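Exam review. A common question shows you a sequence with its structure tokens and asks you to describe the fold in words. Practice with the pair below. Do the first one on your own.
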Amino acid sequence: DVFIPMNSYGDPRGFAFVTCAQEDLEAVMAATDGAELMGRTLSVNPPLKAGEKEERKKTAAPRRQKLYVGNLSFYTTEETLTEVFE
């Protein structure tokens, strides 16, 4: 599952959220953090809650986990990002 937030003009904001299986989380982050996409180096991390700055404490692990993907090209589509995470 890929979600790319858009600004008020309908243009991508330069980041996305990708959902993956909890058991694949570390492997997905290791394989994609620092990867190149459309001439940009991806930044892949677990997302923080709005306004949160510190590392979160671990709670019961859900079956799927969202990842924050930053430094995206404004021309990135869900299809091109999905290809990176397959």
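Now try the second one, then compare your answer with the model answer below.
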Amino acid sequence: LARLHDTLLPMYPPLFFRKDSTDALVIKEILDPEHGSAYDYHGDEFDFSLEGHEHAVLDIGAHIGVFTRYALSKGARHVTAYEPEPSNAAILRRNATPRI
């Protein structure tokens, strides 16, 4: 899933995550092509999508930046991401900084 997602954001480095951690679960929840993203849900009880919210997205508890990158891949022009845990924040910076 991570490598597939990388093709959507060629200007960003490959999505880095820690093996043998919960990072893979977060990636599956957000990027699963079989079931769709948990953040792009259309159902009977509620409807949630980034559609119409492309100008700015706020990612609180951004973990390693999977949702940040997902929002960018869906057309968000600006994402403000906050992650208080230092090791996650370091990976977030790595994953959310475009290559120049």
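Model answer, second protein: Strands lie at 41-42, 47-48, 57-60, 79-82. Residues 66 and 84 are 15 Å apart (CA to CA). Full marks require stating both points clearly.
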